[in-house]
Amino acid sequence: MDYQDIVFQIIVSGGDAKSYAMSAIRAAKEGQIDEAKKHLESCGEALEKAHNIQTSLIQDEAAGNSKEVTLLMVHAQDHFMNAMTVRDLAQEIIDVYEVVLELKEKINVC
């Protein structure tokens, strides 16, 4: 597989991860906390794939096989970093929605 294909795999995995994180937020907003958590798991799997690719590139560079840093690689890293941030925020938002739902249930019981 050539370098450009490897870079595209990071972009695709990062994009998938961000999409899963956003789906998790939407599910939590609709009160589907279990579904939201499943989306976050899928997000984590996509991030892990991107991370593994990135780690492989870092190991290659450490072994003296560095690649040119292209605009495409910068774009890939941007996707990856943004996906990690969105995943972290999604987790926090889901936690908040979960508490809100629990409080609503307590109020309705009383």
From TrEMBL:
Keywords: Magnesium, Metal-binding, Phosphotransferase system, Sugar transport, Transferase, Transport. One of its GO terms (molecular function) is transferase activity. It comes from the Bacteria. CDD domains: PTS_IIA_lac. The modification Phosphohistidine is found at H75. Mg(2+) binds at D78. This is PTS lactose/cellobiose transporter subunit IIA. The active site is at H75 (tele-phosphohistidine intermediate). Pfam families: PTS_IIA (PF02255). One of its GO terms (biological process) is phosphoenolpyruvate-dependent sugar phosphotransferase system. PANTHER family: PTS SYSTEM N,N'-DIACETYLCHITOBIOSE-SPECIFIC EIIA COMPONENT. The keyword Magnesium applies. SUPFAM superfamilies: Enzyme IIa from lactose specific PTS, IIa-lac. Binds 1 Mg(2+) ion per trimer. Its cofactor is Mg(2+).
